[in-house]
Every structure is written in C-alpha cells, then in structure tokens.
Design a protein that fits this description.
By secondary structure, this protein is α/β, with parallel strands linked by helices. It is about 30% helix and about 15% strand. The chain has a 9-stranded mixed sheet, with helices on both faces. It is globular, with a radius of gyration of 20 Å. The model has no long low-confidence stretch (mean pLDDT about 95).
Length: about 400
C-alpha cells in the first residue's frame, strides 16, 4: 500500500526586488542586454545574492526563451516557465511562480523581460505586426485584414453600441494616463494632452485615433519573487502576493460570446477570492492598456464598477494618482512605455507604489499613508487571456 505523502504548509510568497532597464528610446543595445540590466538591478534592489535564484521565467526572446535568457544571465535554474500568452504572460507567470514557491518547488524565482521592438523597426530589422499568423483558427480571419488593433476597435464599438459609451469617455483614459506620466521621469511621453487632442488625431482603426493606442518603445524589467524565509535578509520591505487568477477566452472573434466582457472577469474574481479582499479594498490598479478600451472594460470586469458603467467611471479624473482609483500610475502603455508584452511593468509599478518609491508620482490614501493593496491585471492577445495578481504591503 502506498503511504500518504506528508502535507507541508504552503509558504507565503513575497516580491523583494524590482527594477526597470533603460526604457523608451534605446537604440544601441540588444534585448539580451536589457534582460541583464533589469535582472542585475532587481537583484541589487532585493539585497540578496544571485545564488538564491533557483527559478526563472521569461518569454518573447529567441527560440527557447527561458533557456537562452538564463544562459545569458549565467543562471542554471531548476524551475522554469516559458508561458507565452501575450500581455498577460507575466501575471500568469507570477501566479505559476507563487504556486511553485508556496509548494516548495522553488525558493526564489526571477521574472525578466526585455525588448527592442521600437529600435528594431527603426533600424528595419523587423516590420510592424499585421497579424499573429495565419495558421489554425486564425486562418479564417487573416485573409480579411482583421489586424489586432481592428479587433480591439470592434470590441470598443460594441461596448459603445450596447452601453452608450462615448469617444470622449474613451479619450479620458488616454488623457489621465498622460497626466500620470507627467510625474514619471522614466515615461516616454509626459506632455499633457486633452480630450480634443485625442479625438482629432489620425484615425488608426475606427474608433481609435493615434492617442487611443499605446506607444511603441524599447525597454525591460525584472521582478524577484521569494519564499517567506528569505524576506528577513532582503534589503527592503516585502510586498506579498496575496492571490492570483488566470483565464483564457478565445482566439477567433466568432468564438467570443460577448465583446464587452474580457477574461479579466474570471481571473479577477479568482484573484480577489484567493486574496480574501474585495475590489473596494484596493488602493490602486495597474491595468494593461494597449488601447483605451482595455482599461475601461477591465475596470468593469474586475468589479470596480457595474458592466456598462465604465464610461462614467473613468470621467472626472478618477484614474489620476490622486483620484478615486489611481490607475496606471506610471502613465501605462499609453504614455510611459510599451515594448511588446508590458505585463511585467504592471507588477513593477504596483510594488513601487506600495513601497512608497514613486517620488512625485506617489499615491497616498486620504489619511496620507501609503497604499496597502494593489492589483495588477494583464491582458493578452485581443482579450484572449488574462492574469490578475493582488499584492499587499506589510
């Protein structure tokens, strides 16, 4: 008879190191160099020795992403993750890493990303993406020129039709993201814009004009997640991973039951339930914003407002760092940076805010204290996947 394996208590998991690489316009380095720069800085931020790292997660680089990047960094991990689900990759990886650490399969996991998407296009080493390929289910859409931005635009139009959401309300998302970027010295664009500026810009895909769409930048970042026993040796206050959830929805638009509901409706519910908190408890939100509509619909699906009420919710400066719910406090993908798969930047900014390291852009509660709870929610593809992570201080 097989004996019953012993039950070990799940360990708490904390983020103890975060960092950005050089971001924005970076013309003279490789993506590997950005990986290394971010990793070194995150490790220095943690105060821990690199020898503690036994887990590694990376995607989007080379043929064997985690193996190639780990080799470049001189690491030999015994736990790896190469999950690739677009912009939500990093929240999904964080969920996987937290489970692995909690179960004792890893002790310290480094998540790292770097991309020279902007520089590569400028140097004509690659072209801009028109589609994600033409195999499998996508073969039924690609011949008709249904690009990624067109898919998001179609979803936005459906929300406008169903709930009366206006172009001006969508534009408010871009305006407030730019206002938040103004206090971020690392943001690519910091000059203020108005609703009229957004509406009068060149049309990209109806109803999106240029400022409804994310910037294209270079850059990278890294996050070090560790088991609770490493926290006393860390250099700074830990930020705890309280709960996480993941979900996938569709790849073909014909299989998406409702264009106004994203998979964040599932990943968010799971993350909040596992963290034991409610949306009303959250002090700030970092949300994937390749397009303005993503911010609006994700706020609905995470439960910050009712379905269809996102347009009214984002008005009157609510998303500003001193607003009712600070969102994308670094300026987001609409203004700060967007080098490809931006999800890891959401975790970096959330940790930065919870630690009180945001300088002039620091969020504070009404009593003047630092925020205590944050949520980071990444979206991949065209609302195909979602990962949501709830983080807490203290």
């Amino acid at each position: 008879m097989l004996s019953t394996p012993p039950v070990h208590p799940r360990r708490k998991v904390a983020i103890v190191g975060t960092a950005l690489s050089d971001c924005g316009r970076v013309d003279d380095v490789t993506p590997y160099a950005l990986h290394a720069q971010a990793a070194r800085r995150a490790l220095a931020d943690s105060g821990l020795d690199r020898s503690v790292i036994d887990g590694f997660a990376s995607a989007g680089l080379g043929t064997l992403a985690p193996a190639e990047a780990a080799e470049y960094l001189g690491l030999r991990p015994t736990w790896v993750d190469s999950t690739s689900v677009g912009g939500s990759t990093w929240e999904v990886m964080a969920a996987h890493a937290a489970d692995a650490i909690a179960a004792g399969h890893a002790n310290a996991v480094l998540l790292v990303y770097g991309s020279t998407a902007r520089a590569d296009i400028k140097a004509r080493r690659r072209t801009a993406n028109l589609s994600f390929g033409a195999r499998g289910p996508l073969q039924f859409e690609v011949p008709y020129g249904h690009t990624l931005v067109a898919k998001y635009a179609m979803a936005a139009r459906r929300h406008m039709h169903e709930y009366g959401t206006t172009l001006e309300q969508l534009a408010e998302v871009a305006v407030q993201a730019r206002a938040n970027a103004a206090t971020n010295p690392d943001a690519m664009f910091r000059d203020p814009v108005t609703v009229d500026d957004v509406l009068s810009g060149p049309l990209i895909a109806d109803p999106f004009t240029k400022l409804h769409c994310c910037v294209r930048s270079d850059g990278g970042c890294a996050v070090l997640m560790v088991a609770q026993e490493y926290v006393p040796d860390a250099a700074k206050e830990p930020v705890w991973v309280l709960g996480a959830g993941t979900a996938v929805s569709h790849t073909t638009m014909s299989e998406w039951e409702d264009f106004t509901v994203s998979p964040a409706a599932v990943s968010g519910r799971l993350a909040f339930e596992r963290a034991g908190v409610r949306p009303s408890d959250i002090d700030l939100a970092e949300i994937y914003d390749a397009f303005t509509y993503m911010t609006l619909v994700t706020l609905e699906d995470l439960g910050f407002c009712e379905k269809g009420a996102g347009g009214a919710f984002v008005e009157k400066g609510r998303l500003l760092r001193d607003g009712g719910l600070p969102v994308n406090t670094d300026g987001g993908g609409l203004s700060a940076c967007h080098p490809g798969m931006r999800g890891l930047f959401l975790l970096v900014e959330a940790v930065r805010q919870l630690r009180g390291e945001a300088g002039e852009g620091q969020v504070r509660k009404r009593n003047g204290r630092l925020p205590e709870l944050a949520v980071a929610s990444g979206t991949g593809g065209w609302f195909c996947s979602s990962g949501t992570v709830v983080l807490g201080r203290g």
